[in-house]
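Q: I'm teaching a short session on how sequence maps to structure, and I want students to see two examples side by side rather than one. Could you give me a first protein with its sequence written out and its structure tokens following it? Keep the formatting plain so it prints cleanly on a handout.
A: Of course. Example one:
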Amino acid sequence: MKRIYILLVFNFLSVFSFAQTDSLTTEKPDSTPNKIAISRRALLTSILTNESAGIGLWMDSLARLENEKYVGLIWDERWMLYYWTASYGTLLAEVSQFDPNQRSLEAWKIQPKPDSLFEWVDYSLYESRFDLFSNIQSALLNTEEKAFTTLLLEYLLRLNTDEEIWAERLESFESHFPSSHFLGFVQSIKPSILKPSNKAFGLSGGLQVGNWRGEIERYLKTPYMFNLDVYYWKKRWNFLFEGSFGGPEIARDLVVGSFVWPKDDPTNFFTFGLNLGYDIVNKPKLRIFPSIGGGLGILKPPTPDESEAPLPEYYGNFNFTEFHLSAALTTDIKLFRKNYRNLNIPKGSYQGIRLKFGWNGLNFGKKNPSLQGEMIYLAVNYNLFSFRSK
């Protein structure tokens, strides 16, 4: 009853639309475009009344009306109708010859006048999709043809919503049937999914807060610094270049010989290091790795701007440089993990928060006993991790 009601409404609209078209168009009633339009309306009527014989008849009529200039049925409409009529042999023969050149050639032809044929065919097949899948499995087709016919129906009905799963299924078809006649079409509809290699690059930066231990704690205030690391990752190994930049103030007068670096003076404090780490935990949302290495530390008075008065010459006595061992425990909290196709970044790459608890065994004490000690720090960074594609 529902289909009959829909058919009556559609026929009314079609007649009204056709009358308007005939009153405005300059084409002859027996012209190819008008014949195609009439045949498509008759085909749609057969679809709405579920008349299989009529569907086949009007599909043949439209096929005869097609030529090098006009298209009667667009390729996806035609293929969906092959499913409707269970014409799997015709469908497979056509798809095996349907390459990008054929698709482009058809697109250059004059398309049918706008109507509702595609929408109704698409709707009807979608509603009966479970029966269609069942019919494919019971059809007289070999394993390869059944597999491809199933994939093609999912493609035509746009059921392939997950690109990664869809790409895996198409790759599975290629691996199972490497000599298939349908590989050309399969490759043309396969999404480009970047696959991660076992190599990656990373970058993180953020705030570091330190805590002095030893004699140096009495002479330097709490260091608030900017922390940066650039790293290369391979098979759970991390190769890191790290740097920290800040300037804790002098907590009390620092004496070198007969010269004094006075209390509350600013400083420039830098550390640079190379570290090697290994992932002990690498889960979808968490990565943890310890690292060890060595670094360079620099502590000196800040260089004044051009508008400021130059420092006294004796400030040169307060330039301290040292080499030290370092260690850290780093935790990455993975917040955003997906396949960034528009940036050409493979799946598994992520952005997130990096928490780093570290130790620098500073050796400034060799230059000045008042600076003997080490630094423990906590860094909170924003981290970018990007796999290289295969």
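Q: Perfect. Now a second example for contrast.
A: Example two:
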Amino acid sequence: MNLNYAHNPILDSHIFVPDVEAHAWGDGRMYLYGSFDHQGGQTYCSDVHHVYSSEDLIHWTDHGVVFSLADSLWAKDCGALYAPDCAYRDGWYYLYYCVPDGRCGVAKSQSPTGPFTDVGQIQGIWGIDPSVFVDDDGQAYIYWGQLTWGKIAKLKDNMVEIEPDSVVESLTIAEHEFHEGSSVKKINGKYYFLFADTHRHRDPVSGEGRPTCLGYAVSDHPMKGFQYGGVIIDNFGCDPASWNNHGSMECFGGQWYVFYHRSTHGTVNSRHVCMEPIYFNEDGSIPEVKQTSSGVGEAIPASAYIPAHLACELSGHVRIAGDEASYENLTLTEIRNGDTVLLRYLNFHGETHMKVRVNTAVPLRVELYIDGLYHAEMAIAPAEGYAETAAEMPALNGRHTVIWKFFCKKGGGKISMDAMGFYG
């Protein structure tokens, strides 16, 4: 996906990287360390880790496989590599990885992009999603855990062993709605603990929430006293089957960002990495931000030919899925009567026409809503394969949220849309 504007997801549309830990190591680039899903796959994660980097947060370099289960000294038969993190100390970059049974290991390299050579398993840790924070005084801490608790321990100077007597419980499901995905940063003298948060979208029977939120807790100490602060972002609505979220915060060029992921393909996985700018109130709290299609950019040019899979919120049955016949080989599919597709934000400069590329076997009516208000509509006739339909609309200017709503008399289910645009 070679688009000349900022957008979410931030990587190529066929790269599925969730659980991202972002690091700016001071060399003018941002580095991403995450899990690696397969497109349309039915399991979490694969057996490899890649690293991606960028100097402008728009164009990203894939540095290839930097570590795999085949490189592990002790976990070759564990099936998958779950969420990693990376830390720097004394000329070495340490990659912290974990496997599905909860064991964690360390590999190291003298380059932030690897390749990483395995050092071995970390003894005394049992739980996924290791995250490492190195404080200003040089003391390193490792955070891990899932479901009912998160734990913290001090790392020894070798960055491989923990101090066994230092292990403490940090966050819990009872007090913080902690689910998994620990990530810690020090900001303005405070310790911010980001995690997958289950405060919302509760099951009507069990009462359990979905961990679609990234919540945060704050403390004056790296190992204790974390008080729940709220939700930074919620990926609910990105896909009908979306289940979890996992990400991090990092500062680049003086601006803080939150990194998170969104599911595709009607699965809990096949997750894309996305990012949004975030801000801090005077009291240190972080206002919640919404998912966007534009990401780090102010808005996507409405006059561009826009892949439909940049939609950030979907309602109904519609979901992002692979389609070799479609634009970018990804499409919005299984569209049914009443489904909606939302893009946030597009920038208009007087455009008077709208167009969509749709594959439908039934007559279709599509309504366009701008910032939640009806704006225009078009009728789309059945055709063989994808076909473009255009219609006039009242002229638009400025930055807006765009929603497409679909209506069909025969139920739909065989309707797909892969691109859109505005002109005139």
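Q: What should students look for in example two?
A: Point them to this: The two ends are 25 Å apart (CA to CA). Also worth mentioning: DSSP finds one helix and 29 strands in the chain.
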